[in-house]
Design brief:
Blueprint lengths: L9 H13 L1 H9 L10 E6 L4 E6 L2 E2 L1 H13 L3 E6 L8 E4 H17 L7 E5 L4 H13 L2 E4 L6 H11 L3 E5 L2 E3 L2 E3 L1 H8 L8 E5 L13 E3 H10 L10 E2 L3 E7 L7 E6 H15 L7 E4 L6 H13 L3 E5 L10 H9 L3 E4 L1 H8 L16 E5 L5 H11 L6 E4 L33 E4 L14 E7 L9 E2 L3 H9 L6 E9 L5 E6 L3 E4 L2 E4 H9 L4 E11 L3 E10 L6 H15 L8 E4 L13 H8 L16 H8 L3
Parallel strand pairs: 4-17, 6-7, 6-8, 7-14, 8-11, 11-12, 16-17, 16-18, 18-19, 19-20, 29-30
Antiparallel strand pairs: 1-2, 3-13, 4-5, 9-10, 14-15, 15-23, 21-22, 22-24, 24-25, 26-27, 28-29
Bound molecules: 5'-O-[(S)-butoxy(hydroxy)phosphoryl]adenosine.
């Protein structure tokens, strides 16, 4: 494939950016022209941020899998679409060419049809990182079913909540998943999630670990049996279902500052165009290159830059089942060497954790195939950036620092590899189509520099094609969460700086959302989980700086019974959180307190707790408005 919309120089970027602002509709139409449509659009964009609504390529008909699979068959059918590296390096890798992937996706789509899945139905997917996960995702998209992938680190309760919220009648899972030295019993977790559930009709189970599992007659069916039937039917391809541009492609749940996770919805056309555009441009992808994104497909990064972006571009995408540190900390470098990876896209937390092992894991690994490095998920500290640059990139690979969110679908602010300048710790310039603005707490644009930079809350003032279209089943929540804080702006929840060159540096969340190892966790969610533990009266959760995770979870807990083994109670509370949300939300520190700093109106002053959790004892700011300033002294004394 060639990409006529690939940016070739800094001047070219500036030109594209200007065009995208001057005439967004014309700009995006010229990109969208290079995709496969059943019918082209009547109008490129119909939007307002009050409803909110941003309908891209209105009136167009398409199926994203024709763009990810069918259109590559003629010239690139034998190109590897997926290279799969198993958890155990001694197990054989699998390579699926575009032809093979197309066949498997079609066959699995037929399996879904055979089991009564229809266009618009929601299908939950809870699997490990195996090619079948991609086949399941694309199989849904083939027939217009809406996939909702749930990361393997979420608990049965979290799955039950998501199944309920999306009203899913179908689930796709595995018996188990391998992750490092562990086997994760995925089907057991699904079984727990479905206790008492009367709406789920079918659970399709792929055999990965062949661990003993329960298989309920009438509900649970084996993936392999179903695929065999389809094979026996002689089916090797299946026409894609025609989708409207605005039809939902998938739901992905993500945490916010309040309540339960929201189901972020992305629509077919805009998401396709934007993930492809950003994949090709940000990484400066050249046909034939091997792209290795280390994220899990359970997060947006995996959706956009393992599956849809690379495949729609005809690229070769590496899927890695395991973890970076097993059987040893050289695993990523071994994979880069083994498959001659050209683009490596990972998270700062992974880099920091690998840095901690020193240089021996890199020894003897040939990394000379690397051309581009990328990071995502959290701000990258200079030390990690330098290590990545020197030890991995050998000072010759541009590093793209890509800022974006589940809701944005694709990268919004990032340098373009080898084309636009990089600046360690800075995501740098907005991509074409993206119009950021920094505002103060009242929503006024920041016009004055402070210490040489503009500083404010990061908003975007114009839609781009992969902006979320709604939050599933509750459009009002979408409006209040993202479009109501500041009128006529999409509010990201992040704070940022902008320098005199217009480069952005993301400083982190300004709301009550934590970023733990690049995973988003709402403090309210963790508090709700802790409060469910018997004996807990009240809790407050804040983040604190953590060397590897970026942020750790610090919980202040009022517990009703002082007797007993504190260490044990802490472990019990951690278990409760693990049950309610999942192991990813376990608090790192739990401090028992007698009271929480509250205002006279009863609001917890997190600002103070955040300071204490950071180890600050002196400058806690104004505490005179506290109901009982005495609690602060006690909390300071108990700091862990
Ligand atoms: C939040 C979004 C984007 C996919 C992975 C996370 C933080 C993301 C960066 C970056 C600084 C970053 C932000 C954002 N974030 N990328 N390059 N530099 N911060 O997706 O779970 O939706 O989280 O991650 O705080 O709001 P997510």
């Amino acid at each position: 494939m060639v990409y006529p919309y690939q940016i070739q120089s800094f001047a070219d970027y500036k030109k594209a950016y200007q065009q995208s602002v001057d005439n967004p509709e014309k700009f995006w139409a010229s990109v969208a022209d290079h995709f496969t449509w059943r019918k082209k659009w009547d109008k490129v964009l119909d939007w307002n941020f009050t409803e909110p609504k941003s309908e891209w390529f209105k009136g167009a008909k398409l199926n994203i899998t024709e763009n990810c699979l069918d259109r590559h068959l003629e010239n690139n059918g034998n190109t590897p679409a997926i290279i799969w590296e198993p958890n155990d390096p001694n197990e054989k890798q699998r390579i699926l060419t575009y032809s093979k992937l197309h066949e498997k996706v079609c066959q699995f789509a037929q399996v879904l049809l055979n089991n009564g899945v229809k266009k618009g139905d929601r299908v939950c997917i809870y699997m490990g990182m195996i090619p079948e996960l991609t086949i399941a995702v694309l199989g849904c998209a083939r027939i217009g079913a809406i996939h909702s992938v749930i990361f393997g680190g979420f608990s049965a309760q979290s799955i039950a909540d998501r199944v309920f919220d999306a009203q899913s009648e179908f689930i796709i899972t595995c018996d188990g998943a391998y992750r490092g030295a562990k086997d994760i019993p995925l089907k057991n977790v699904i079984d727990d999630a479905l206790i008492g559930n009367k709406t789920v009709k079918k659970v399709i189970v792929y055999t990965r670990t062949r661990t003993p599992i329960s298989m309920l007659k009438g509900r649970d069916i084996w993936w392999e049996d179903e695929m065999r039937h389809v094979e026996e039917m002689g089916i090797h391809s299946l026409p894609a279902v025609e989708m409207g541009a605005a039809d939902p492609l998938f739901i992905l749940y993500t945490s916010g500052s309040t309540g339960k996770p929201k189901g972020v919805v992305h629509a077919c056309a805009g998401y396709m165009v934007y993930t492809n555009y950003t994949f090709v441009n940000v990484f400066n992808y050249q046909p034939g290159q091997i792209h290795f994104c280390t994220a899990d497909i359970g997060w947006i990064t995996g959706h956009s830059y393992i599956v849809y972006g690379p495949l729609s571009a005809g690229a070769t995408s590496v899927i890695f089942e395991g973890i970076p540190t097993w059987p040893n900390a050289g695993r990523f470098w071994e994979i880069v060497d083994k498959y001659k990876v050209n683009i490596l896209y990972t998270a700062p937390t992974a880099i920091r954790s690998l840095m901690g092992f020193g240089l021996w894991p890199l020894q003897g690994k040939n990394l000379s195939s690397l051309k581009v490095l990328g990071t995502v998920g959290e701000p990258i500290n200079e030390e990690a950036w330098n290590w990545y640059n020197e030890q991995v990139g050998k000072n010759k690979c541009p590093i793209v620092d890509t800022w974006w969110q589940t809701e944005t679908g694709g990268c919004l602010i990032s340098n373009i590899a080898g084309i636009t300048p990089s600046k360690p710790g800075w995501a740098t310039l907005p991509l074409p189509g993206v119009q950021p603005v920094l505002v103060d707490d009242k929503g006024n644009e920041i016009t004055e520099m402070e210490d040489g930079v503009y500083k404010g809350n990061l908003c975007i003032k114009f839609p781009w094609p992969s902006l979320l279209t709604t939050t599933y089943g509750d459009h009002e929540r979408c409006r209040t969460n993202y479009f109501a804080t500041y009128p006529n702006l999409y509010f990201t929840g992040d704070g940022a700086l902008k320098d005199e060159e217009g480069f952005y540096r993301i400083t982190g969340r300004v709301d009550d959302v934590l970023n733990v190892s690049g995973h988003r966790i709402g403090t309210a969610e963790v508090e709700n989980a802790i409060n469910m533990h018997t004996g807990v009266i009240e809790s407050a959760v804040v983040g604190y700086p953590h060397d590897v995770k970026g942020q750790g979870i610090y919980a202040f807990v009022i517990y009703n019974n002082k007797e007993g083994d504190e260490a044990l109670i802490r472990k019990d509370i951690v278990q409760t959180v693990s049950r309610v949300i999942g192991p990813i939300a376990k608090p790192d520190k739990i401090q028992f307190v007698n009271g929480l700093p509250k205002t006279r109106s009863g609001k917890i002053m997190r600002r103070i707790l955040r300071k204490i959790a950071e180890g600050e004892t002196e400058n806690l700011g104004d505490i005179t408005t506290l109901l009982d300033p005495g609690v602060v002294e006690e909390i300071k004394k108990g700091y862990l």
